[in-house]
Design brief:
With 204 residues, the chain is an alpha+beta fold. The protein has a single domain, classed as Gcn5-related N-acetyltransferase (GNAT) (Aminopeptidase, 3-Layer(aba) Sandwich), CATH 3.40.630. The protein is 28% helix and 33% strand. The strands form two sheets. It has an eight-stranded mixed beta sheet with strand order 1-2-3-6-7-8-10-9, sandwiched between helices. A hairpin with a 2-residue loop joins strand 9 and strand 10. Helix 1 crosses helix 2. The longest helix has 15 residues.
Length: 204
Amino acid sequence: MFMKGTLCELRVLEGNDYETARFTTAVNAGLTTEHLFTGSIPMRAVDYKERWRKEREAGDILFGIWIPPVSENDHRGQCFEAGGGRDDHVLIGTCGLYSHREIYRSWEARWIIFDPDAVGKGIGKQAVTLLTDYAFHRLNAHKVWLGVSEHNLRAVKCYLDCAYKIDGLLRDAIFYQGRYHGTYQMSMTEEEWKASGAAKSTAP
């Protein structure tokens, strides 16, 4: 499945060697994960391949965030797809919907841009919009929620710009760089999504 925007597209995360190698190498380097629990424990590609498999079996929905090559010399994304065709798009992050509660029609959303060259270019914002639109328009979600470090100001602004609202602050919820930090819980309801008009920004 593809969800295409003007800056990026979301593809089903296959868990193949290319995806797991790109993800694990970048996350272990820790260049964009200072505010996340992901990356606190070094992991191998095979570990993440198994983790993604278990998440899919649990009903979670996982996507890779892909962008076109930034130049003719950008070979980071070259891989062979199942059909044998060449695809030079670059995997720069992942996202997904987790912790589905059917009775409440709610999902937890998560995003990570692990490629530092893709940060600050509007790609994350479009990935947030694409995934949120998918939750409401394809999965019939009533509410999508997320957690984000109180110090991750770039991400907080991104979510606010995409029409998420802050529900509250969970004190000392995560630990990194030798200290405990709070996390904001943010969410959006179906009615708020429709009223925001944010879904229109997914159109190419």
